[in-house]
Write a structure and sequence with these properties.
The complex is a heterodimer of chains A (299) and B (506). Chain A is of the alpha/beta class and 299 residues long. In chain A, the strands form 3 sheets. In chain A, strands 6-7-8-3-9-10 form a 6-stranded mixed beta sheet, sandwiched between helices. In chain A, a hairpin with a 2-residue loop joins strand 4 and strand 5. In chain A, helix 4 runs antiparallel to helix 5. The radius of gyration of chain A is 22 Å and the shape is elongated. Chain B is of the alpha+beta class. Chain B contains 13 helices and 13 strands. In chain B, helix 5 packs across helix 6 and helix 8 packs antiparallel against helix 9. The N and C termini of chain B lie far apart (73 Å). The chains are: A alpha/beta (299), B alpha+beta (506). At the A-B interface, helix 2, strand 6 and helix 3 of A face helix 1 of B.
C-alpha cells in the first residue's frame, strides 16, 4: 500500500512534557484521514511535526516519501496546509495574495483559482485583515487548493465557523479530494463522519487506534441486554466491553470489538439466558464519547 | 531569481510608507549635514533646527524600522506564519530580504555619501573604495545587528526592547571603553560582531533555531563587553611595540611634582625625556600604571589615553586610579610601574595657504574654511577620515588681524625644522581623542577644527592663544606621519603615594 504519510514511533516533547508519544500511523494515498481527539491530545502537534514546523524529539515521519525534517520547497509545492490559527498576510488583498503565491507553484491552475474565488464568493479587492473568520478560511483554502496539491493537511479547519461556511468548505474540500490525500484534525465529529475514509484517535499524546472509518463504525455497538431480574456483573469483564451501566433489569455497555455471533455467545456465556439483546450502531461522536469516558474512568 | 524578485516586489508593496520615510529622512539628512560654509541664511541649521541635532538618530531609527518590518514580513519566530508551509527556499528568502535592504537602506546611504561628498566639493568617483568600505562598515555595525535582532523577534514590540538595549550598550561601550588599545579591541569586536550576526541570521533562515540564534547574539554581546573591559594581554601589547629601535628614553623625574591643587585622583608623573630624533614629536598611545604594595595588593589603572605634555627634555604623564585604591595604599611604601606606549611622529608634508573668505583646499587635510567669529582656527572637512596630526602656525598676518597677546613669534615651520617644536608646548595637534566607534558615523564627512596659533602654550596654566586669523593671513600646516612604536616601562621604587601626590590625601 502506498502511503502519503508514514509515521514511526514519533514523539514530541516540550520541556520534558510529552505532547506526542511513540505514534505509529499510516495515511494511504487517496485517503481522507481524520485525526480526532480531545483538546490537548496532540493533534496539532502531530500536524506541525509532519510539516516540519516543529522537529520531533524521537522517531520519524515520512511525508510524500521524504523525511519530515527534510521537507524542501519541492515537497511544499505538492502540499496544501491550512490551520485554523494560521497568520495570514493581513495587508494583502485576496487577489494579491493569490497572485503573489502563484509563482511559487509550477502546477498553479488559474482557472481553478478563479473557480475557487467564485465558489467561495471571495471579494478579490478586500484586504485579508478585513475579512471575517469564515472568509479568511476560504481565502486560505483557495490559496492552498489552486495548485492541485497531492497532499492536503488541515488543522481544525472548521472550528468556529458557521454551518453554511462549513458546508461550503467541506464541499470544496471534497471536490479537491479526487486524486489528493487529505489529513485533517477536527473536533467536528459529526461532519467528519460524513466524508472521512480513515480515522485516528489521539488521547494524551498517544494514538489509541487508527483505522478505516467503515471498520471502526462496524466494530462499535451499543449493546442493551434485558434480564428477567437485576443482573450481577461478572468479576471477569470482557476486555472489549466498556462503559457498563445497569439499570433495574437492563445492562448497557459498548462493545468495541463487535461481531454479532461472538458478542452474542459471550453474553450467553456470562449471563445465561437473557430476555432480549439489542445491538445499536453508534455515531462517531458516540464512539469517541464512550472511549473518552472509559479513559477517564480508567485514569 | 524570479522568486527573489517576487518576494521583493511584495515587500515593496507592503512597506511603501516605511520606504518613503527612510527616503525622506535620507534627503533631510543630506540637507542638514551639508558642510556649513554656505552663507548663514542658506544653512540647514536655520531651516531645520530641531532635526539638526538628531538627524543621524532619526535616520537610523527609520532604517531600523524598515529592516525590522521587512524581516518580520516573513517572521522567523513562531509556528503560525502562513509562509512556513509554502515553498520558500531559505536562500532565496534571505537573498530577497538582503536585496530589499540593499535597495532601500544601503543604496540611499551610498547616494547620501556621494551627495555629501559633492556638497563638500569632493568627487565621489575619486572615493569609490572608501564609499564601498564605509557602506560595508555601516552594514556590519548599523544594519546587520538590527537585521539579526529582527530575525529572532516576532514583531516590532519584541524588536524594540533588544534594539534599545543594543543602543544603550553601544553608548556605554563608547563611554566606558578605555581608549588606548583600540588597535586591538576594534578588530576583535568587529570580528565577534560580524561572525555573530552571520551565524544568527543563517541559523534562523536555514533552520529557524530561535533559541540558538538568540544565544549566539547574547554571547556576542557578552564577548564584546569582555573585550572592551578586560585589559589586553601584556604579550599582545609587547608584540605590537616589539620593533622599537629608537633611542627615545623616558625616565622618572624624582623632583616633587608641583601643580595646582586638584581633587581628581590623577597621578601626574614627571618624566625626563631624551633621544627624540630631530624634527620628531611623540604621540601618546596609552599609559598604564600598576602599583604593588608590600602586602601583595596591586592596583592596575588599565590602559588610558590621557594628556602628555612634553618637550624634548621633560614632560608629564598622567593616569587615573580609583579613589579607594589611592586611599588604601597612600600611606605604605609601594612600587609603581608606569608603562607608556608611544608613536614617534615625523614631519610629513608642509603646506602654506593664504586664508580667503571662500573655502580653500589644503592637501592632506581637506577643504577648509575659517569663521570670522572664531578667528583662532579653521575647520577642515575630509571624507572618510579624521585629519592627521598636524603642527600649524602663521607666517604672515593679514592686514586686518588683531593679535590679542601682542606677541609676534617666529614661524612654526622654522621651529619644527629646528627640532624645537613638540606636541605639548607651543603647538597644537588634532588628537585622536575620541573612541573609535564615535568616528563611525552615517556621515562620510569628518569635520575637524584646527587651532592655528602662533604662540599657544599648554601645561599647568592651561592654553594660551594668539588670535591672529583674518583674511590674508598665511597659514603653515605640517602633517605628522606615524613612525616607530615605542613601549617603555618606568619603575618607581619605595615611594608613598601621599608623599608624592599629597594633594589627594584626605
Amino acid at each position: 500500500m502506498n502511503c502519503a504519510i508514514r509515521i514511526q514511533k514519533l514523539s514530541k516533547e516540550f520541556r520534558r512534557v510529552a505532547a506526542l508519544a511513540d505514534m505509529d500511523a499510516e495515511v494511504p494515498d487517496g485517503a481522507i484521514y481524520a485525526l480526532v481527539g480531545p483538546n490537548g491530545a496532540g493533534k496539532t502537534t502531530t500536524l506541525k511535526t509532519l510539516m516540519n514546523i516543529w522537529r520531533p524529539t524521537r522517531g520519524q515521519a515520512e511525508v510524500l516519501g521524504v523525511d519530515s525534517t527534510r521537507l524542501s520547497p519541492r515537497e511544499f509545492t505538492r502540499i496544501g496546509y491550512v490551520s485554523e490559527n494560521q497568520e495570514m498576510p493581513e495587508w494583502m488583498t485576496v487577489a494579491y495574495l493569490l497572485a503573489y503565491l502563484k509563482p511559487f507553484y509550477p502546477t498553479w491552475d488559474d482557472a481553478l483559482c478563479a473557480d475557487l474565488v467564485r465558489r467561495f464568493d471571495l471579494p478579490p479587492g478586500r484586504k485579508i485583515g478585513q475579512l471575517s473568520r469564515g472568509m479568511r478560511m476560504k481565502a486560505a483554502f483557495a490559496s492552498s487548493f489552486a495548485y492541485r496539491p497531492e497532499l492536503i493537511i488541515l488543522d481544525e479547519p472548521f472550528t468556529g465557523l458557521d454551518a453554511l461556511v462549513r458546508d461550503e468548505l467541506i464541499e470544496g474540500l471534497l471536490e479537491r479530494a479526487q486524486g489528493a490525500t487529505i489529513l485533517l484534525s477536527s473536533h467536528d465529529l459529526g461532519e467528519i463522519e460524513t466524508f472521512a475514509s480513515h480515522v485516528g484517535y489521539l488521547e494524551h499524546g498517544r494514538l489509541r487506534f487508527s483505522e478505516e472509518m467503515a471498520s471502526l463504525v462496524e466494530r462499535f455497538r451499543e449493546v442493551e441486554v434485558t434480564f428477567e431480574a437485576a443482573p450481577t456483573l461478572p468479576a471477569a469483564w470482557p476486555e472489549g466491553w466498556i462503559q457498563p451501566d445497569t439499570s433495574a433489569a437492563v445492562l448497557r455497555f459498548v462493545d468495541t470489538r463487535f461481531d454479532r455471533e461472538r458478542s452474542m455467545s459471550e453474553i450467553q456465556r456470562l449471563f445465561g439466558d437473557v430476555r432480549d439483546v439489542t445491538f445499536s450502531p453508534m455515531s462517531l461522536r458516540s464512539i469517541f464519547v464512550a472511549i473518552a469516558k472509559d479513559a477517564r474512568t480508567a485514569a | 531569481m524570479s522568486q527573489i524578485l517576487n518576494i521583493v516586489r511584495k515587500d515593496i508593496r507592503g512597506l511603501r510608507l516605511e520606504i518613503l520615510l527612510v527616503l525622506a529622512a535620507t534627503i533631510a539628512f543630506i540637507w542638514v549635514r551639508r558642510p556649513d560654509w554656505l552663507p548663514t541664511s542658506e544653512q540647514a541649521f536655520s531651516t531645520l533646527p530641531h532635526l539638526n541635532y538628531s538627524m543621524e538618530e532619526l535616520l537610523q531609527l527609520f532604517r531600523c524600522l524598515l529592516i525590522a518590518r521587512v524581516v518580520h514580513k516573513e517572521s522567523l519566530v513562531g509556528d503560525r506564519q502562513f509562509w512556513i508551509t509554502r515553498p520558500y527556499s531559505w536562500r532565496q528568502l534571505l537573498a530577497a530580504k538582503t536585496l530589499f535592504v540593499c535597495l532601500f537602506v544601503v543604496v540611499p546611504s551610498a547616494v547620501a555619501d556621494c551627495a555629501l561628498l559633492h556638497f563638500a566639493r569632493y568627487s565621489p568617483l575619486s572615493y569609490v573604495p572608501q564609499l564601498i568600505g564605509h557602506q560595508a562598515l555601516l552594514a556590519a555595525l548599523f544594519i546587520a545587528p538590527f537585521f539579526a535582532i529582527a530575525t529572532v523577534t516576532r514583531n516590532l514590540w519584541q524588536f524594540a526592547a533588544p534594539s534599545v538595549g543594543l543602543f544603550a550598550f553601544s553608548f556605554l561601550l563608547v563611554r566606558l571603553q578605555p581608549e588606548a588599545v583600540e588597535w586591538l579591541r576594534i578588530p576583535s569586536i568587529l570580528t565577534v560582531v560580524i561572525v555573530a550576526e552571520v551565524v544568527a541570521i543563517v541559523l534562523q533562515y536555514a533552520e529557524r533555531r530561535v533559541a540558538a540564534a538568540r544565544l549566539v547574539m547574547i554571547g556576542a554581546v557578552a564577548a564584546v563587553a569582555a573585550i572592551s573591559l578586560w585589559p589586553p594581554p601584556d604579550a599582545v601589547v609587547a608584540l605590537r611595540y616589539a620593533a622599537d629601535q629608537t633611542p627615545v628614553n623616558i625616565a622618572f623625574d624624582p623632583a616633587p611634582f608641583k601643580i595646582a591643587e586638584d581633587f581628581d585622583p590623577e597621578l601626574e608623573i614627571p618624566v625626563k625625556i631624551a633621544g627624540i630624533p630631530e624634527s620628531c614629536v611623540l604621540q601618546l598611545d596609552g599609559t598604564r600604571v600598576r602599583i604593588a604594595a608590600p602586602g601583595g595588593e596591586t592596583v592596575d589603572s588599565g590602559w588610558q589615553l590621557t594628556n602628555f605634555f612634553h618637550d624634548n627634555n621633560e614632560g608629564t604623564l598622567a593616569a587615573y586610579i580609583d579613589r579607594k585604591d589611592f586611599d588604601a595604599l597612600k600611606s605604605v611604601k609601594v612600587n609603581v610601574r608606569v608603562t607608556v606606549a608611544l608613536t614617534l611622529l615625523h614631519p610629513g608634508n608642509t603646506f602654506t595657504s593664504t586664508l580667503q573668505d571662500a573655502p580653500f583646499s589644503i592637501p592632506d587635510l581637506g577643504n577648509c574654511w575659517w569663521n570670522h567669529d572664531a578667528s583662532m582656527g579653521m575647520r577642515c572637512v575630509a571624507p572618510f577620515r579624521r585629519l592627521p596630526p598636524v603642527v600649524s602656525g602663521v607666517t604672515k598676518f593679514g592686514p586686518d588681524c588683531i593679535s590679542i597677546s601682542g606677541s609676534i613669534p617666529a614661524p612654526v615651520l622654522k621651529d619644527l625644522q629646528a627640532g624645537l617644536v613638540n606636541m605639548g608646548k607651543p603647538r597644537y595637534r588634532i588628537p585622536w581623542m575620541n573612541g573609535y566607534f564615535e568616528n563611525i558615523s552615517l556621515n562620510p564627512l569628518v569635520v575637524d577644527f584646527i587651532v592655528v596659533s602662533d604662540n599657544a602654550s599648554g601645561g599647568a596654566g592651561g592654553w594660551k592663544f594668539t588670535y591672529t586669523l583674518c583674511s590674508g593671513t598665511e597659514v603653515v600646516v605640517t602633517t605628522l606621519l606615524p613612525g616607530a612604536r615605542i613601549l617603555r616601562d618606568i619603575d618607581i621604587h619605595d615611594i608613598r603615594l601621599v608623599d608624592y601626590w599629597p594633594k589627594y590625601a584626605r
